[in-house]
Specification:
The structure is a homodimer of 340-residue chains. With 340 residues, the first copy, chain A, is of the alpha/beta class. Chain A has two domains: 272 residues, Ribonuclease Z/Hydroxyacylglutathione hydrolase-like (Metallo-beta-lactamase, Chain A), CATH 3.60.15; 37 residues, no CATH class. In chain A, the strands form three sheets. An eight-stranded mixed β-sheet of chain A has the order 6-5-4-3-2-1-15-16. Chain A has a six-stranded mixed β-sheet with strand order 7-8-11-12-13-14, with helices on one face. In chain A, a hairpin with a 5-residue loop joins strand 9 and strand 10. The first copy, chain A, is globular. Chain A starts with a strand and ends in a 21-residue tail after the last strand. At the A-B interface, helix 2, helix 3 and helix 4 of A face helix 2, helix 3 and helix 4 of B.
Chain lengths: 340, 340
């Protein structure tokens, strides 16, 4: 599984950070990718990656503030101009449907592919991604806001050679059938079931991507068995004290303390106030990192635009951003080989 | 007067061209600037210029296709986050108001500054810019689309020294009053009016910025005494023949022929289909330029993102893009000194 950050700024874009957008890529061939939040300019960021709008399976919107959804109409329109034909799922709070319908009607946007809106309240039991189950958890913010928890549907299982020998299953096609989950019948008439000869499966990987939220503890239940939490850290404590609680955002310390208590092995902070400069200035992201580090002993990451992270089968997150991104492939006719 | 292109692509952004947006800057200190069209990502382009959202006076939307208006909600929101307090005028086709109201309501966008919507049908006689009068002309497109014609309200006038001498006006404060347009009374009781002693004024400069349109001839009346036409040239003739007339766009040849007939001295083409590459490829912008050049003998320009053009008082347009743009000033807290 891979996470690729398309935007990491809160409220307004800066010259180096766009507003919210996160691509979640599954391992499987053809399983495509999912987008969590779609701030203005998300489609422009996608042009700088290897992601394509054709392989996008579903879009999850955490909440309806503009910096999380104003890129949606343009992305949908571009997918249409690029001749997408496959169904696209859009999951989000209920007013999202009214927002989209209003935009599509007033701007006469007709799409050449089917769009299915799934209200977040009806997400449980809905099958929107081929490889992952998705659950929503309500958070605490100025408007209704949600976290999405993505869990692998299936984990690969390996055969236990000693159990196969004990059961007398001869090496050959029968092994393959058992690994695929099928019962086999031996020459002597006995039936062997996969559960009898497979090693215990690893824990399915689980990633939580949270929307804006000032009570990280609301994720306590979702965090059980989670490998990664991606959470906003809009402020540091001194700035939160100055701004006050009204915007209902988290500080780095609040999120870090929660992640420590929940024993989350990997924490990625994002959605930084534009007042924090990347490198030099009165306030920098080093301040955010230091505050989180002081309260959290797990693997800590601060997201950057176009940074990629891989989560391996042991649940360890690593940054895998290429040192310098290769020129991305063209998307339909909309790509352009040269970058100004 | 200056034109600064913020986006020059049609339909979808490319890696070098954003969707429609054009800044029109007046000469006068404090007169600010106007924006014509606001495709998604316009606020991101503005971060790469010296323009600020505080000095924006009015936004004119030519038509409601997404590539001309999907950047509007985000730009309005960012101006609010940057603490804009001055009124902002928005001019456009009537459904624009419904589009904006729907977005603002569903995404709970409250702005800390007053917004005044002026339906394009009611633009005549409305005073939206300090230095320019603006008129709209309806065009021909798949949805209602308009051109905006910007004309200087006042031109500077100079005194005619020989007429002042003949009228017996003594050099001194009286000259200044006459130049400011005030009558004066001489010691002998005679009244001298400015019209008697001023040189004839130059023609006020006039710039037409057209929306999507497949009948350039509709601009014949607006083009009388115009110095500059900015018009879409989405296709070249061979591609238009292939695509067919349904999208209702112009070819470079169609616009060039019209500009030639109307004796327009300066023509700027923009809104190019992403199929035309900047430099290398089966189709490039050199094809667009060659087709227009063959039909037009005036000063021809193809717009590029972030290209700036100055229109001098003699009505001559020149490109004045700095060879390499200086780092832009920070905008409130949203700027970021370093560019990734």
């Amino acid at each position: 599984m891979e996470l690729e950050f398309l935007g990491t700024s809160s409220g307004t874009p800066t010259r180096t950070r766009n507003v919210a957008g996160l691509a979640l890529r599954m391992d499987g061939k053809g399983s495509g990718w999912a987008l969590v939040d779609c701030g203005e300019g998300t489609q422009h960021r996608i042009l700088r990656t290897a992601l394509t709008l054709h392989q996008l399976r579903a879009i999850f919107i955490t909440h309806l503030h503009g910096d999380h959804c104003y890129g949606l109409p343009g992305l949908l329109a571009s997918a249409g101009l690029l001749n997408r034909s496959e169904r696209l799922f859009i999951v989000g709070p209920r007013p999202l449907e009214r927002y989209l319908q209003g935009v599509m009607e007033t701007t006469e946007l007709a799409l050449p592919y089917p769009l299915t809106f799934v209200p977040v309240e009806e997400l449980d039991g809905t099958d929107v991604l081929p490889d992952l189950t998705v659950r929503a958890t309500e958070l605490s913010h100025r408007m209704r806001s949600f976290a999405y928890t993505f869990t692998e549907k299936e984990v690969e299982r390996r055969l236990d050679a000693s159990k196969l020998a004990a059961a007398g299953v001869p090496r050959g096609p029968a092994w393959g059938l058992l690994q695929k989950g099928e019962d086999i019948t031996l020459d002597d008439g006995r039936t062997v079931r996969p559960a009898e000869v497979l090693l215990p499966g690893r824990r399915p990987r689980r990633v939580i991507v949270a929307g804006d939220n000032d009570r990280p503890g609301l994720l306590a239940e979702a965090a059980i068995d989670a490998d990664v939490l991606v959470h906003e850290a809009t402020y540091t404590e001194p700035i939160l004290a100055k701004v006050g609680p009204a915007p209902q955002h988290s500080s780095a310390q609040m999120v870090a303390r929660f992640a420590e208590t929940a024993a989350l092995p990997n924490l990625v902070l994002t959605h930084f106030s534009p007042r924090y400069q990347d490198h030099h200035g009165p306030l920098t992201l080093a301040d955010v990192a230091a505050e989180a580090r002081a309260a959290y002993t797990g693997r800590l990451f601060l997201a950057r635009d176009l940074a990629r992270f891989a989560l391996d089968r042991q649940g360890r997150l690593e940054e895998v951003t290429p040192p310098r991104a290769a020129p991305p492939p063209r998307q339909g006719t909309a790509g352009d080989a040269a970058e100004a």
